[in-house]
Design a protein that fits this description.
Largest sheet of chain A: none
Number of helices of chain A: 11
Structural class of chain A: mainly alpha
Largest interface: A-B, 32 and 32 residues
Oligomer: homodimer
Distance between the termini of chain A: 57 Å
DNA sequence: GAAGGATATGAGATGGTTCTCACAATTGCA
DNA sequence: TGCAATTGTGAGAACCATCTCATATCCTTC
């Protein structure tokens, strides 16, 4: 985490550093992000950087934490957590909220995705385990007779997660409609299957 | 592509360079692979490398091409292309053959995967469009009444592809059984859906 | 306004990368 | 064998990365 010196900085300077880091981490995965560019963009001297942070990892962790805070705040405000509906409805609503979020701050969303795609050991450590909540929802849906008892929740989440990862990543900001259409088709397939009965 | 000088090399030396490159590209994505390590492992002087190849990209393209040749040869020998069955059966058989291949040469398979995960512009250009064949199979299955007409083949392939990518990637060599179990569960979900009818 | 701790600063240390080039060695052929 | 063409060689150029450190400057408090 940042050193006290960083927190003592004037807001304007803190913001400049934060913005520069976000910009860099949004356009390069962690391993390829350059402190050189960050300090240049933020217009702070090299030495200063090490007054504020221990190293690149330190900065990255800080940025990730801040963006995560921002994301959960926004999702909470959108009231996404108390939707009644099955697994698919909830995930769909959440994605709509995330798309909205991305519209306001494309860089923020992009960092989260790069983080997922980057498979370095360090990044793996950072990646949280967010599947637990989804598993609970699926089990609940099984109990209420919406989802077949014999379905493996882990596989189901895995399918959805990998699908979202690649699609959200590939789809630019521009093509929200196409993303939603693809998503709905995928939900249909997972709900009903592809086989003719 | 390699310079003529490379092809004129003695087999032993060619093999040494090829092996060193495979080893490096199997353990690092393209952008992080180091020529330094490659020439060291291959035990060739720095200058020699540039007698054989234009640069790192040139070497990488060559390796990819060779491995692709190897892969298709092996799949053909396994007689994977003339299986009668639906989309899922064919893809399942092909994966079994690929797992076999990976057993013999883990590095080769790993390179193919790193290639898929690496999203640099250069790598994107290299990535072939292998979805066309799968689309044909799905359309055939629609005609023969196995798959619902209204299913979007692109989305179906996308779901499967992204699922495989992440799972094949995550699953080590050790856990073939678990991978197959997960795969079969995913096929079941895509075939029949998760909803209770 | 002087003292002293906190902060700012950027040159350069250090180590990594790709790639070049002048020359040495080897090979193939007349 | 002798000459020309091909190939081998490794030191180092050029660049870029992270990180340190001695010194300058600012800022607070008495």
């Amino acid at each position: 985490m940042p050193k006290p010196t960083f927190y003592n900085l004037k807001e304007e300077k803190k913001r400049r550093i934060f913005q520069a880091a976000v910009q860099e981490f949004a356009s390069h995965k962690f391993s390829e992000a350059s402190l050189n560019r960050i300090v240049k963009t933020a217009k702070i001297p090299w030495g200063s950087f090490y007054q504020y942070f221990d190293n690149k990892e330190d900065l990255y962790l800080y940025i990730i934490k801040e963006l995560s805070k921002y994301k959960w705040d926004a999702l909470e405000q959108a009231g996404v957590d108390n939707i009644d509906g099955d697994f698919f409805n909830i995930i769909r609503e959440k994605l709509i909220a995330l798309i909205e979020l991305r519209k306001q701050n494309p860089d923020y969303a992009h960092i989260a995705l790069l983080q997922e795609m980057d498979d370095s050991d360090f990044i793996r450590k950072v990646r949280g385990d967010s599947t637990k909540r989804w598993k609970e929802i699926i089990e609940r849906d099984k109990k209420s007779g919406l989802i077949k008892e014999e379905i493996d929740a882990d596989v189901m989440i895995d399918m959805f997660y990998s699908f979202l990862l690649l699609n959200f990543y590939r789809t630019g900001l521009d093509d929200e409609e196409k993303f939603m259409a693809t998503l709905d088709e995928a939900i249909k397939i997972m709900r009903e299957g592809v086989s003719v009965r």
